[in-house]
């Protein structure tokens, strides 16, 4: 079924004759006649009542006109939706994020994006860094925030920020007044840490082996929020990057103390899949995160 032939049929009905339709379109009436004849041959039924002085559609002709109008309406609707998508007025953004990122930095970026693009749906999945990398590679997430730099050839690191680890204690804890804390200090106090597969725990294990001091956590838990809450209760210490506990530090529930020895920093990386072209809403939110992390990096480096 030719769109051109359907248009000629439609214009003939609107103009009242093939000659008038030809004048309107700037083509010969014979061209319109041939296109309409091809349509009738394709459908196997006449589209006009023959022998009348004015254009009179058959039932088949009415169906063809109805189809053409529907086709044009759908095309206009598609064009409008494409324009809305291009201007990021609608659409969906999917991203993966670790639990430790849930705080002012993440929340403010998402809130500002929502205010600017209220019809765009943001799907945030909170999971492990390994799972985030998998979802980005599988195009299940447009981009992700992970707590290391992936050694994956198909992952592009858009921007990264190095964050030092801090000892987190409640204000009333015996270590709270120290300007720096050693591993030897931590050995003397109950500590809550993540499981062995957590990057932070692995970095601590490296430092422990180097100093031949080994921490035995009284609580092992795979929740950053729980680690913050337990440390804030005053019964245990914990070790986290400062960004993971900014609200608790800001309101005085936790004190963040630097280590007095070299502990490897964690690297916060914003990642996408190499070769994936992000458009509209995903691209705009990704740009917002890149700008936010650039400001974060400038603050951290001071």
TrEMBL record:
The keyword Ligase is assigned to this record: no
Keyword tags: DNA-binding, Transcription, Transcription regulation
Record domain HTH lysR-type: where: 1-58
Pfam entry (one): HTH_1
Recorded superkingdom: Bacteria
UniProt-listed InterPro entries: HTH-type_LysR_regulators, LysR_HTH_N, LysR_subst-bd, WH-like_DNA-bd_sf, WH_DNA-bd_sf
Cellular-component GO terms for this entry: cytosol
GO molecular function, one term: DNA binding
PANTHER family (alphabetical): HTH-TYPE TRANSCRIPTIONAL REGULATOR YBHD, NITROGEN ASSIMILATION TRANSCRIPTIONAL ACTIVATOR-RELATED
Family stated for the protein in its record: Belongs to the LysR transcriptional regulatory family.
Protein name: DNA-binding transcriptional LysR family regulator
